[in-house]
Design a protein that fits this description.
The protein has about 350 residues and is mainly β. The chain folds into 2 domains: about 190 residues, Pectate Lyase C-like (3 Solenoid); about 160 residues, no CATH class. Helix content is about 5%, strand content about 50%.
Length: about 350
Protein backbone atom coordinates (compact mmCIF):
# COMPACT_ATOMS: atom_id res chain seq x y z
CA UNK A 1 0.00 0.00 0.00
CA UNK A 2 2.89 2.38 0.75
CA UNK A 3 4.19 1.87 -2.81
CA UNK A 4 0.81 2.79 -4.30
CA UNK A 5 0.45 5.87 -2.12
CA UNK A 6 3.94 7.04 -3.04
CA UNK A 7 3.31 6.44 -6.73
CA UNK A 8 -0.01 8.31 -6.71
CA UNK A 9 1.57 11.22 -4.89
CA UNK A 10 4.38 11.43 -7.42
CA UNK A 11 2.60 10.54 -10.66
CA UNK A 12 -0.83 12.14 -10.34
CA UNK A 13 0.26 15.50 -9.00
CA UNK A 14 2.57 16.57 -11.79
CA UNK A 15 2.44 16.93 -15.56
CA UNK A 16 6.19 16.50 -15.97
CA UNK A 17 8.54 13.55 -15.31
CA UNK A 18 8.13 11.77 -11.97
CA UNK A 19 10.28 9.27 -10.08
CA UNK A 20 9.36 6.61 -7.56
CA UNK A 21 12.43 5.30 -5.73
CA UNK A 22 12.35 2.07 -3.72
CA UNK A 23 15.40 2.61 -1.46
CA UNK A 24 17.92 0.02 -0.22
CA UNK A 25 16.36 -2.55 2.08
CA UNK A 26 14.06 -5.58 1.93
CA UNK A 27 10.36 -4.96 1.35
CA UNK A 28 7.54 -7.53 1.51
CA UNK A 29 4.66 -6.91 -0.91
CA UNK A 30 1.33 -8.49 -1.72
CA UNK A 31 -0.80 -7.66 -4.74
CA UNK A 32 0.35 -4.20 -5.86
CA UNK A 33 -1.18 -2.36 -8.84
CA UNK A 34 0.31 0.71 -10.49
CA UNK A 35 -2.67 1.78 -12.61
CA UNK A 36 -2.72 4.80 -14.86
CA UNK A 37 -3.32 6.89 -16.68
CA UNK A 38 -1.02 9.27 -14.86
CA UNK A 39 -0.70 12.98 -15.54
CA UNK A 40 3.08 12.60 -15.31
CA UNK A 41 5.04 11.48 -18.35
CA UNK A 42 7.39 9.69 -18.22
CA UNK A 43 7.04 7.72 -15.00
CA UNK A 44 10.23 6.15 -13.63
CA UNK A 45 10.28 3.41 -10.97
CA UNK A 46 13.71 2.67 -9.52
CA UNK A 47 14.26 -0.52 -7.49
CA UNK A 48 17.53 -0.21 -5.58
CA UNK A 49 17.43 -3.30 -3.37
CA UNK A 50 15.14 -6.33 -2.80
CA UNK A 51 11.39 -6.81 -3.12
CA UNK A 52 9.94 -10.03 -1.70
CA UNK A 53 6.61 -11.40 -2.90
CA UNK A 54 4.49 -12.51 0.03
CA UNK A 55 4.73 -16.29 0.46
CA UNK A 56 1.09 -16.43 1.58
CA UNK A 57 -0.93 -17.03 -1.61
CA UNK A 58 -4.15 -15.83 0.03
CA UNK A 59 -2.71 -12.31 -0.33
CA UNK A 60 -3.19 -12.52 -4.10
CA UNK A 61 -6.58 -12.50 -5.79
CA UNK A 62 -5.22 -11.45 -9.17
CA UNK A 63 -2.64 -13.09 -11.37
CA UNK A 64 0.31 -10.85 -10.51
CA UNK A 65 2.30 -9.47 -7.61
CA UNK A 66 3.33 -6.22 -9.32
CA UNK A 67 1.00 -5.00 -12.08
CA UNK A 68 1.75 -1.97 -14.27
CA UNK A 69 -1.36 -1.07 -16.26
CA UNK A 70 -2.59 1.73 -18.58
CA UNK A 71 0.62 3.77 -18.48
CA UNK A 72 2.12 5.77 -21.35
CA UNK A 73 5.82 6.39 -20.81
CA UNK A 74 7.09 3.91 -18.19
CA UNK A 75 10.68 3.22 -17.18
CA UNK A 76 11.57 0.57 -14.60
CA UNK A 77 15.22 0.75 -13.51
CA UNK A 78 16.38 -1.98 -11.25
CA UNK A 79 19.78 -3.31 -10.34
CA UNK A 80 17.91 -4.68 -7.37
CA UNK A 81 16.15 -8.03 -7.02
CA UNK A 82 12.53 -9.15 -7.20
CA UNK A 83 12.30 -12.43 -5.29
CA UNK A 84 9.06 -14.30 -5.96
CA UNK A 85 9.72 -16.69 -3.04
CA UNK A 86 8.30 -19.56 -5.05
CA UNK A 87 9.95 -22.27 -2.97
CA UNK A 88 7.13 -22.15 -0.44
CA UNK A 89 4.43 -22.70 -3.08
CA UNK A 90 5.85 -24.98 -5.79
CA UNK A 91 4.73 -28.09 -3.87
CA UNK A 92 1.14 -26.83 -4.08
CA UNK A 93 0.90 -26.28 -7.85
CA UNK A 94 -2.80 -27.28 -7.81
CA UNK A 95 -3.64 -24.46 -5.39
CA UNK A 96 -6.49 -22.13 -6.42
CA UNK A 97 -7.28 -18.79 -4.87
CA UNK A 98 -10.20 -18.31 -2.44
CA UNK A 99 -13.75 -18.25 -3.79
CA UNK A 100 -14.13 -14.55 -3.00
CA UNK A 101 -11.50 -13.62 -5.61
CA UNK A 102 -12.82 -12.22 -8.87
CA UNK A 103 -9.97 -13.86 -10.81
CA UNK A 104 -9.37 -17.46 -9.67
CA UNK A 105 -5.66 -18.12 -9.59
CA UNK A 106 -3.54 -21.22 -9.88
CA UNK A 107 0.09 -20.95 -8.87
CA UNK A 108 1.37 -22.01 -12.30
CA UNK A 109 -0.33 -18.93 -13.84
CA UNK A 110 0.94 -16.49 -11.25
CA UNK A 111 3.29 -13.73 -12.45
CA UNK A 112 5.87 -11.80 -10.47
CA UNK A 113 5.69 -8.73 -12.71
CA UNK A 114 2.90 -8.16 -15.23
CA UNK A 115 2.87 -5.27 -17.67
CA UNK A 116 -0.46 -4.68 -19.44
CA UNK A 117 -1.68 -2.00 -21.90
CA UNK A 118 1.52 0.01 -21.52
CA UNK A 119 3.13 2.01 -24.33
CA UNK A 120 6.59 3.55 -24.74
CA UNK A 121 8.20 1.55 -21.95
CA UNK A 122 11.68 0.47 -20.90
CA UNK A 123 12.56 -2.18 -18.31
CA UNK A 124 16.28 -2.18 -17.65
CA UNK A 125 18.66 -4.23 -15.50
CA UNK A 126 16.15 -6.21 -13.46
CA UNK A 127 16.87 -9.46 -11.60
CA UNK A 128 13.96 -11.87 -11.16
CA UNK A 129 14.41 -14.86 -8.84
CA UNK A 130 12.26 -17.89 -7.98
CA UNK A 131 8.86 -16.79 -9.20
CA UNK A 132 5.84 -18.75 -8.02
CA UNK A 133 4.92 -19.16 -11.71
CA UNK A 134 5.84 -16.81 -14.55
CA UNK A 135 8.55 -14.26 -13.90
CA UNK A 136 7.28 -11.59 -16.29
CA UNK A 137 4.45 -11.17 -18.80
CA UNK A 138 3.96 -8.41 -21.34
CA UNK A 139 0.41 -8.15 -22.69
CA UNK A 140 -1.27 -5.64 -25.03
CA UNK A 141 1.79 -3.38 -25.06
CA UNK A 142 3.49 -1.36 -27.78
CA UNK A 143 6.96 0.14 -28.27
CA UNK A 144 8.51 -1.81 -25.42
CA UNK A 145 12.21 -2.42 -24.68
CA UNK A 146 13.57 -4.96 -22.18
CA UNK A 147 17.33 -4.73 -21.61
CA UNK A 148 19.62 -6.71 -19.29
CA UNK A 149 16.94 -9.00 -17.90
CA UNK A 150 18.34 -11.68 -15.58
CA UNK A 151 16.05 -14.57 -14.56
CA UNK A 152 17.03 -17.48 -12.31
CA UNK A 153 15.17 -20.21 -10.44
CA UNK A 154 16.14 -23.44 -8.74
CA UNK A 155 15.82 -26.76 -10.56
CA UNK A 156 12.63 -27.78 -8.70
CA UNK A 157 10.65 -24.71 -9.80
CA UNK A 158 7.45 -25.06 -11.80
CA UNK A 159 9.38 -24.01 -14.92
CA UNK A 160 6.64 -22.37 -17.00
CA UNK A 161 7.51 -19.91 -19.76
CA UNK A 162 9.77 -17.51 -17.88
CA UNK A 163 8.85 -14.45 -19.94
CA UNK A 164 5.66 -14.41 -22.01
CA UNK A 165 4.75 -11.82 -24.65
CA UNK A 166 1.27 -11.64 -26.17
CA UNK A 167 -1.01 -9.22 -28.05
CA UNK A 168 1.88 -6.78 -28.39
CA UNK A 169 3.95 -5.18 -31.11
CA UNK A 170 7.35 -3.50 -31.38
CA UNK A 171 8.78 -5.42 -28.39
CA UNK A 172 12.55 -5.89 -28.17
CA UNK A 173 14.40 -8.08 -25.65
CA UNK A 174 18.21 -7.97 -25.67
CA UNK A 175 21.36 -8.56 -23.62
CA UNK A 176 19.51 -10.87 -21.25
CA UNK A 177 20.25 -14.14 -19.43
CA UNK A 178 17.54 -16.66 -18.53
CA UNK A 179 18.63 -19.70 -16.55
CA UNK A 180 15.44 -21.73 -16.24
CA UNK A 181 12.11 -22.62 -17.86
CA UNK A 182 11.18 -22.09 -21.51
CA UNK A 183 13.08 -18.81 -21.78
CA UNK A 184 10.80 -16.51 -23.83
CA UNK A 185 7.43 -17.51 -25.26
CA UNK A 186 5.36 -15.47 -27.72
CA UNK A 187 1.62 -15.97 -27.97
CA UNK A 188 -1.23 -14.35 -29.87
CA UNK A 189 -0.65 -11.00 -31.56
CA UNK A 190 -2.20 -7.55 -31.33
CA UNK A 191 -4.13 -8.07 -34.57
CA UNK A 192 -7.81 -8.97 -34.62
CA UNK A 193 -7.23 -12.57 -35.70
CA UNK A 194 -4.60 -13.39 -33.05
CA UNK A 195 -2.09 -14.47 -35.72
CA UNK A 196 1.61 -14.21 -34.87
CA UNK A 197 3.79 -12.42 -37.43
CA UNK A 198 7.08 -10.61 -37.69
CA UNK A 199 9.25 -12.39 -35.08
CA UNK A 200 13.04 -11.98 -35.35
CA UNK A 201 15.41 -13.91 -33.05
CA UNK A 202 19.14 -13.43 -33.59
CA UNK A 203 22.57 -13.52 -31.92
CA UNK A 204 21.51 -15.80 -29.08
CA UNK A 205 22.74 -19.01 -27.48
CA UNK A 206 21.24 -21.85 -25.44
CA UNK A 207 23.07 -24.32 -23.23
CA UNK A 208 21.67 -27.56 -21.78
CA UNK A 209 18.06 -26.72 -22.59
CA UNK A 210 15.25 -29.03 -23.70
CA UNK A 211 14.42 -26.93 -26.77
CA UNK A 212 16.46 -24.61 -28.91
CA UNK A 213 13.95 -22.82 -31.16
CA UNK A 214 10.41 -24.19 -31.19
CA UNK A 215 7.10 -23.34 -32.82
CA UNK A 216 4.19 -25.17 -31.22
CA UNK A 217 0.43 -25.16 -31.71
CA UNK A 218 -2.36 -27.01 -29.96
CA UNK A 219 -5.12 -29.31 -31.17
CA UNK A 220 -8.48 -27.67 -31.96
CA UNK A 221 -6.70 -24.34 -32.41
CA UNK A 222 -8.45 -21.59 -34.43
CA UNK A 223 -7.68 -20.84 -38.08
CA UNK A 224 -4.90 -18.31 -37.57
CA UNK A 225 -1.35 -17.95 -38.89
CA UNK A 226 2.23 -18.03 -37.68
CA UNK A 227 4.37 -16.45 -40.38
CA UNK A 228 7.37 -14.25 -41.16
CA UNK A 229 9.47 -15.73 -38.35
CA UNK A 230 13.28 -15.66 -38.57
CA UNK A 231 15.79 -17.51 -36.37
CA UNK A 232 19.29 -16.33 -37.28
CA UNK A 233 22.85 -16.60 -35.94
CA UNK A 234 22.00 -18.93 -33.05
CA UNK A 235 24.34 -21.28 -31.18
CA UNK A 236 23.08 -24.21 -29.09
CA UNK A 237 25.16 -26.48 -26.84
CA UNK A 238 23.92 -29.84 -25.50
CA UNK A 239 20.31 -29.14 -26.50
CA UNK A 240 17.74 -31.91 -26.93
CA UNK A 241 15.49 -30.41 -29.64
CA UNK A 242 17.50 -27.91 -31.64
CA UNK A 243 14.92 -27.10 -34.32
CA UNK A 244 11.33 -28.20 -33.80
CA UNK A 245 7.91 -27.44 -35.24
CA UNK A 246 5.28 -29.26 -33.19
CA UNK A 247 1.65 -28.95 -34.23
CA UNK A 248 0.63 -31.92 -32.10
CA UNK A 249 1.48 -30.37 -28.76
CA UNK A 250 -0.32 -32.18 -25.92
CA UNK A 251 -2.03 -34.42 -28.47
CA UNK A 252 -2.65 -37.09 -25.82
CA UNK A 253 -4.80 -34.64 -23.84
CA UNK A 254 -6.83 -33.17 -26.71
CA UNK A 255 -8.88 -34.14 -29.72
CA UNK A 256 -8.97 -32.56 -33.16
CA UNK A 257 -6.12 -31.16 -35.22
CA UNK A 258 -4.31 -27.84 -35.32
CA UNK A 259 -5.66 -25.30 -37.81
CA UNK A 260 -2.76 -22.88 -37.48
CA UNK A 261 -1.10 -22.10 -40.82
CA UNK A 262 2.70 -22.07 -40.42
CA UNK A 263 4.57 -20.43 -43.30
CA UNK A 264 7.50 -18.20 -44.21
CA UNK A 265 9.76 -19.60 -41.47
CA UNK A 266 13.53 -19.15 -41.77
CA UNK A 267 16.33 -20.95 -39.90
CA UNK A 268 19.66 -19.39 -40.86
CA UNK A 269 23.21 -19.87 -39.65
CA UNK A 270 22.50 -22.18 -36.74
CA UNK A 271 25.28 -24.09 -35.00
CA UNK A 272 24.75 -26.66 -32.31
CA UNK A 273 25.54 -29.81 -30.39
CA UNK A 274 22.59 -32.17 -30.05
CA UNK A 275 22.05 -34.63 -27.18
CA UNK A 276 19.30 -36.30 -29.24
CA UNK A 277 19.77 -38.41 -32.34
CA UNK A 278 16.94 -36.44 -34.02
CA UNK A 279 18.45 -33.13 -35.04
CA UNK A 280 15.44 -31.46 -36.65
CA UNK A 281 11.73 -32.23 -36.24
CA UNK A 282 9.06 -30.69 -38.49
CA UNK A 283 5.77 -32.08 -37.21
CA UNK A 284 3.16 -30.11 -39.14
CA UNK A 285 -0.63 -30.11 -39.13
CA UNK A 286 -2.30 -32.96 -41.01
CA UNK A 287 -4.92 -30.59 -42.46
CA UNK A 288 -2.89 -27.42 -43.15
CA UNK A 289 0.69 -28.32 -44.15
CA UNK A 290 3.61 -26.01 -43.41
CA UNK A 291 4.84 -23.89 -46.30
CA UNK A 292 8.04 -22.03 -47.19
CA UNK A 293 10.32 -23.43 -44.49
CA UNK A 294 13.93 -22.37 -45.11
CA UNK A 295 16.94 -24.23 -43.64
CA UNK A 296 20.14 -22.38 -44.55
CA UNK A 297 23.68 -22.86 -43.21
CA UNK A 298 22.73 -25.38 -40.55
CA UNK A 299 25.62 -27.14 -38.79
CA UNK A 300 24.58 -29.61 -36.07
CA UNK A 301 26.82 -32.27 -34.55
CA UNK A 302 25.97 -35.14 -32.25
CA UNK A 303 27.31 -34.88 -28.70
CA UNK A 304 30.21 -37.08 -27.71
CA UNK A 305 28.09 -38.98 -25.17
CA UNK A 306 25.59 -39.86 -27.90
CA UNK A 307 28.38 -40.94 -30.20
CA UNK A 308 29.63 -43.30 -27.50
CA UNK A 309 26.19 -44.94 -27.53
CA UNK A 310 26.46 -45.36 -31.32
CA UNK A 311 23.19 -43.55 -31.94
CA UNK A 312 22.30 -42.77 -35.54
CA UNK A 313 21.63 -39.14 -36.44
CA UNK A 314 18.65 -37.94 -38.50
CA UNK A 315 16.05 -35.30 -39.19
CA UNK A 316 12.33 -35.99 -39.52
CA UNK A 317 9.40 -34.57 -41.49
CA UNK A 318 6.31 -36.45 -40.34
CA UNK A 319 3.81 -34.78 -42.71
CA UNK A 320 3.83 -33.00 -46.09
CA UNK A 321 5.88 -29.82 -45.98
CA UNK A 322 7.14 -27.33 -48.52
CA UNK A 323 10.87 -26.65 -48.05
CA UNK A 324 12.86 -23.94 -49.75
CA UNK A 325 15.52 -26.54 -50.70
CA UNK A 326 15.30 -30.30 -51.31
CA UNK A 327 15.89 -32.20 -48.08
CA UNK A 328 17.51 -35.60 -47.97
CA UNK A 329 17.80 -37.33 -44.61
CA UNK A 330 21.23 -38.83 -44.01
CA UNK A 331 22.16 -40.96 -41.00
CA UNK A 332 25.61 -39.69 -40.05
CA UNK A 333 27.32 -38.51 -36.84
CA UNK A 334 26.98 -34.89 -38.05
CA UNK A 335 24.85 -32.96 -40.50
CA UNK A 336 25.37 -29.71 -42.33
CA UNK A 337 23.36 -28.19 -45.12
CA UNK A 338 24.92 -28.16 -48.56
CA UNK A 339 23.25 -26.31 -51.45
CA UNK A 340 20.99 -29.24 -52.35
CA UNK A 341 21.58 -31.99 -49.82
CA UNK A 342 22.62 -32.92 -46.28
CA UNK A 343 26.26 -33.96 -46.02
CA UNK A 344 28.63 -35.04 -43.21
CA UNK A 345 30.53 -32.35 -41.36
CA UNK A 346 33.54 -32.70 -39.05
CA UNK A 347 32.89 -31.98 -35.41
CA UNK A 348 33.42 -28.34 -34.46
CA UNK A 349 35.70 -28.12 -31.42
CA UNK A 350 34.79 -24.52 -30.57
CA UNK A 351 32.11 -24.40 -27.91
CA UNK A 352 30.06 -21.31 -27.18
CA UNK A 353 29.58 -20.64 -23.48
CA UNK A 354 26.58 -19.07 -21.75
CA UNK A 355 23.07 -19.98 -20.71
CA UNK A 356 20.09 -18.93 -22.83
CA UNK A 357 21.52 -15.53 -23.67
CA UNK A 358 20.04 -12.99 -26.04
Amino acid sequence: MAFIQACNAACKSSTGPSNLVIPPGRFMVGKTIFKGPYSSNPVTVEIQETILANSNMSEFCGRACLLFQDVDGLTVLAGGIFDGQGQSTWLYSNYHSPDNCNSPLSISKFTSIKVQTVTNAVIWDINLVNSKGFHMTITSCSNFVVERLNITASENSLNPDEKHISRSDQVRVSNSIIRTGDCISIGESLSNDDSVRGIFVSNSSSTKTTNGVRIKTFHNSPQIQASNIIFEDITMNDVQNLIIIDQRNRSKDSIGVSSVKISDIHYRNKRGISISNVAITLNCSSTIPCEDIELADINIILSFNCLKKLLSFSSTCSLPIELSVPLETTKTPALTRAPNRWQPQKKNKNKNQGIATL
